[in-house]
Specification:
- The protein is mostly helical.
- The chain contains three helices and no strands.
- It has helices at residues 17-28, 35-66, 71-87.
Length: 92
Amino acid sequence: MPYDYNVASRITLDLSDEELEALGEVTRTGRFASVEDALKAGIRCVARSEAQGRGVAAAYRAAYERLPQDPELGAAGSDLLADIVEDGPPKS
């Protein structure tokens, strides 16, 4: 059954004390008007990041299909990209 994005749904979350404190902090500082706004912004951020990661991975796949490189180099690049998408860029 497809989800109707025009209908709001109430959900229940179990959050740790640290997570609750972080939400309280971003609302106390005025960054977000409410905990609900902060959570919705977080969901949008995760969704955007996931979509970008899928787009980058698809672009790499397409490029390697058009211009194959040394198999070991291609595998290393794919592994590095997967690590970056999962963990973020390497810290310097």
